[in-house]
Here is the input.
Amino acid sequence: MTTLFLLPASCASGYAANRMQGVRLGTEAGAGGPLWVENLLWLGALVLVIVWARQMKRIFPAPAAPQETGE
Here is the structure.
């Protein structure tokens, strides 16, 4: 469930921010929004990816490292 919601939401947020940046830079057509909205979308995408990664780490923990014998 985590992957089904967090990754698409992150991608949508990043895509929207990318389009707003393109409008601001003149490479995309359309009406641009304020810069703070674009920044919030980028931060939202980053936070969602970080939350997704932490959830994946909890679901699939890394195997324990082998113990040294101290010979």
